[in-house]
Amino acid sequence: MTTPATDEGLRGELRDELIRAMQRVPDLAGRDLSLSPLSGGITNRNFLVSASGARDRYVLRLAGNDTHLLGISREVEHAATVAAAGVGVGPEVVAFVRPEGYLVTRFIEGSPVSEAAVHQPDTIRRVADSIRRIHDLPAIPGLFMPFRIVEAYRALAMARGVPIPAEYELAMSISRRIELALLAAPVELRPCHNDLLNANFIDDGERIRIVDWEYAGLGDPFFDLGNFSVNHDLTPDEDAVLLAAYEGEVRRPRVARLLLMRIASDFREAMWAVLQQGISILDVDFVAYAAEHFDRLLSNASTPAFERALRDASEG
After folding, report:
1. What is the DSSP secondary structure assignment for residue 146, as one 8-state letter?
2. Per DSSP, what are the bridge partners of residue 203?
3. Three-state DSSP class for 143?
4. Helix 167-183 and helix 146-159: axis angle, to 10°?
5. I want to staple 110 with a disulfide (CB 3.0 to 4.6 A). Which of 32, 56, 202, 231 is the partner?
6. How many CB atoms within 10 Å of residue 109?
7. What residue segments make up the domains of the chain, in order of their start?
8. Hey, CA dihedral for 56, 57, 58, 59, is it positive or negative?
9. CATH classification of 111-313 is 3.90.1200.10, yes or no?
10. Distance (Å, whole) CA 122 – CA 104
11. pLDDT digit string (tens) for 215-232?
């Protein structure tokens, strides 16, 4: 899923606590366990778990500090991961340890999807297939409403004394225009992942698997498509490949909806980083992270293509 890092920092009380929790997992009970931190991720801590006498390896997910403030429900994450595993996309869930909320999944043997590979048409089609499988699932718990999330992140950040960037007001006015355009042609809410970063993809040789379901919930499926597109800087031609693979055709209103959701995705990402400045204890420059996404959002919203997308998306 990600690569093992050193075991530095996994000692003493934390290690003992995790070992005790893993002994309550039937697959691991009574075995000698080895835990190694996994690199990657800027919200949670993940550990690779090896057990004596067991062929399989496992991943233990330890929630980050105050992640409920980011709109994360570990119960929803658990349910979404189980659902995604059922269609061969998510990792297999081995246990959900309560009351701690530790999620234990089977380690996916596979390869990362490189930044270069993700631009290849065949890879884009495979990603579209995995996304489609998720969107075709029955309803899962939780809602993901990006236009409300940015407002909630702002209020929570302000309550923690985090300065709100000057770009917020302009970004909010852009967001309102996008929301009105999309409401003119509503789509059915579908199970969505909502965090399709490159680090969350694993190629198991058969399918592109997707991990990290903590932001999952029912939402606009085009947020997933726009989120994947903007996170990987897909070109308009590559967006066309994505839509053709996802829907079987490329229609102007759908291209427009994807473009608008690219901008909505950057707004969510920017405000996520603003709120993280008030709650995260990780050594990450969230100020720079937010600025990067605000800059891209405002740049993409200042083009004639954005104005055309507002008109085209409302056609349905």
Report:
1. H
2. 111, 208
3. strand
4. 150
5. 202
6. 11
7. 111-313
8. negative
9. yes
10. 31
11. 999 999 999 999 999 999
Alpha-carbon distance 187 to 263, whole Å?
A: 18
| Segment 220-279, tens digit of pLDDT | 999 999 999 999 999 999 999 999 999 999 999 999 999 999 999 999 999 999 999 998
Amino acid at 260: L
> Would you call 174 helix, strand, or coil by DSSP?
helix
The rounded distance, in Å, linking the Cα atoms of 152 and 83 is: 27
Backbone angles phi, psi at 160, to 5 degrees: -105, 15
Closest CA to 26 of 76, 123, 96: 96
Burial tier of 211 (Cβ tally within 10 Å: 0-12, 13-18, 19+): buried
**CA nearest neighbour of 254 among 233, 218, 226:** 226
Q: How far apart are CA 91 and CA 213, in angstroms?
A: 10
Amino acid occupying residue 155? A
Q: Is 177 exposed, middle or buried (0-12, 13-18, 19+ CB in 10 A)?
A: middle
pLDDT at residue 190 is higher than 80: yes
The number of helix segments (H) and strand segments (E) in the chain equals 10, 10
Residue 237, phi then psi, degrees to nearest 5: -65, -40
CA separation for the pair 195, 209 (Å, rounded): 13
